[in-house]
Specification:
The chain starts with a helix and ends with a helix. It is of the alpha+beta class and 117 residues long. It has a four-stranded antiparallel beta sheet with strand order 3-2-5-6, with no helix packed on it. Strands 4-1-7 form a three-stranded mixed beta sheet. The chain has a domain of 77 residues: Sandwich (Immunoglobulin-like).
Amino acid sequence: MVATLSVFSMLLLSANTFAQNITVRGKVLKEDGQPVARASVAVKGSGTGVASNDLGEFQISAPANATLVISALDFTTQEINVNNQTDITERLISTEKTLGEVIVTGYGITQRKKDIT
C-alpha cells in the first residue's frame, strides 16, 4: 500500500511539473544592441536547448521557474531566471579577448630543379 502510494505521488508530482512548462520567446543581443546569431539557449539542468536565429531570436519550452543559460562564442555566459516571463531580451557582455600572437605556417609545393627546366 505504501509503495503504491509513493508511486502515485511521484507520478502526480512529475505530471504537475510537465504541466507548468511555458513557451519563452526572446532575443539575444550584443552590448550595442546588434543581434547575436547562433547563441546557445539552454534550460539549466536539462537536455533542452535551442540556438538563436540570425536576428538573435529564440523560442524554448521551459518550466515557469527555470533558469536559462545563454552563451555564445566571445561572450560571457549569462544565467537568467525565467520567473514566469514569456518574453526575455538579454544583452551579452563581450569577453574582449585579443590574440597576443599569431603564427603562420606555410606548406607549399616545392619545386625541384629538373621541373624548372
